[in-house]
Amino acid sequence: MYYRKRSKSIVYLLSLPPKETVLKRKNMEKITKEFIERALKGYNPQEREDSDRIPSAVLVPLLEQKGRLHLLFMRKAEDGSLHGGQVSFPGGAYEEKDGDILTTALRETQEELGIAPSLWDILGRLDPVETKGSSYVIHPFVAYLERKTPFRPNPQEVASIFTVPLNYILECHPFKTQELQWRRKNYTTFIITYRGETIWGATARILDRFCNIIKETSSSGAKPRKAKPR
Predict the structure, then answer these.
(1) CATH code at 126?
(2) Residue 227, domain member (yes or no)
(3) Whole-prediction pTM
(4) Residue range of the domain that includes 164
């Protein structure tokens, strides 16, 4: 699934796809919404309080296409800011009116993609992730879109939306670490590429932990271990 706003193209560097396949395909076939929900219920995310960081939240959106789970991503509109033009999950900064950080993720997703909060089934939380180059701490919530509904991306905030099969992300994991240049700055980051799109930075680190939780649960059937601070 693709939506693209007609605008100047964004160039990403060093988009070499990783080749490792760690989780066997026969195990990946069993990854369902219910499996992920069970895995996340057995996971205790880190609690991170940092007064120097701006609290923000994203949804890690899952939806079903052709009987398989896919992850939904968006590429931000190019507005000249540090994160403009980057691939990300829908979300944004906490506002006082939100009351809690989950409401932030749901509100921002509705503003960016036009999907009402009531249509999401929240499956669980992941560890907070700090951005590099800016001052945000991101609180990710894994969410499942309950039914097919049209997306209405806000063109002022969203350049494109696309989905990636969850199995593909799991096959790419563990992700390769590479050097990437963005806004004349060099970053060492995880890189995942799919059909010309490059996922990196905080979004890739969120995916890294998500994949670890799925794989630890799939391989052992035990509750996943709490992540070490990164």
Answers:
(1) 3.90.79.10
(2) no
(3) 0.85
(4) 2-219
Domain assignment of residue 224, yes or no: no
Q: Quickly state the pLDDT bin for 223 (edges 50, 70, 90).
A: low
Residue type, 150: P
Q: How many domains does the chain have?
A: 1
Cα 114-120-121 angle, rounded to 5 deg: 175
In a domain, 82, yes or no: yes
Rounded to whole angstroms, the Cα distance separating 42 from 157 reads 35
> For the segment 184-211, what is each residue's pLDDT rounded down to a tens digit?
889 999 999 999 999 999 999 999 999 9
Distance CA 144, CA 151 (A): 14
Distances (CA, A) of 190 to 58, 63, 177: 19, 24, 4
57 vs 139: CA distance, rounded Å: 4
Least confident of 27-36, 81-90, 98-107, 162-171: 27-36
Roughly what angle, to the nearest 10 degrees, separates helices 33-41 and 201-220? Answer: 90
Report the sign of the C-alpha dihedral through residues 69, 162, 21, 91, in that order.
Answer: negative
